[in-house]
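Encode chain A's predicted structure.
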Amino acid sequence: MENNNSEVLLRIEDLCQYFGSTKAVNHVSFDVKKGEVFGLVGESGCGKTTTGRSIIKLYNITSGNIFFKGIRIGAGLMSYRLAIRNARAEYKEKMAAPDADKAALKKELNAFIAEQKKQIKLAKYDQKHCDHAYQQRQMAAVREKYEKLMAEAGESERIALNKEFKNELRIARKTRLVTKIQMIFQDPSASLDPRLTVREIISEGLIIQGEKDKEAINKKVDEMLELVGLVREHAGRYQHEFSGGQRQRIGIARAVIMQPEVIIADEPVSALDVSIQAQVINLLNDLRHELGLTILFIAHDLSVVKYFSDRIGVMYYGEMVELATSEELFLNPLHPYTRSLLSAIPLPDPEYEKTRQRIIYNPLAEHDYTVDKPIMREIKPGHFVKCNEAEYQKYLEILK
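Encoded structure for chain A:
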């Protein structure tokens, strides 16, 4: 179902995540609009999961920016430091020229370095204080809400309202902005603590957030279990007593109880049987509409992504190579790697399968980037492909 909301909830700008010399994610940019499902696809090891983990701040990003609800929650410093290093190297080259204006060049370099250091300082500040700004906003909203209620309430009601006010204020004070982004992990067995009961697993986030009312906690846990298709009696059991599909439902309940605005679903069905996959996908679809969730759906099963996603981004070797709506991507795949992925989708048709031709993607044979380097270009409204100028003209001809 197409999402018509234009409000950008999550924006990723030039994200880089390096581990030593390994460029797990390299200059990836995209945005996720409120209420949509954004699919992120690609082969194993292409950087999909690392992108999700970087967004939720399980890693400190190397470079780039992550904005959530207009607030910068992640900022890498490498690009600023690299810019300073390059400016100094360029300064040395210019100073070697016989007619160089040394005073002007020195002044220009110092001004540039000062600006980059200012950006580094600002990035560190934003990353450290984004939660504090959000907490202040939430606390102000709680105070405003209860001021009106207290003014209208009678003497007997005020005691109960005051108790509720103190509890909500304490929760608002401990709320972190990043908790509004929750993650459903790929392996439910590894992501659930085997020593905790289901009730303890699901309620852990609420307790960390500052909720102390046991009755309220138990009530919310019971509601979540029923919401994801389990029963209240399951709350006292341990994760090893459940099937893979049930364990994944527990993982979904743990994420949803925090009332997130964005859920990062990291291949939530890849470890499950086909029949169970359909149940979990349908559950996520129902929750998306009931709770107004925005979902970043990471997968390599393109048939699932086509059914579930509004827009799809295709990743290859840590880079985004194509981005379009689900319908457009399957109708007009342009990048050779996207065409290769789509050719690998099996269909339940024996006659078709006999003649299906797999497209093998060989980047060395497909592209010549020795002179003209590729960038993300908009081939048609909303359809972006990583290509150079020659490829761009070729893709325009294909669409004609």
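Residues 59 and 162 are 40 Å apart (CA to CA).
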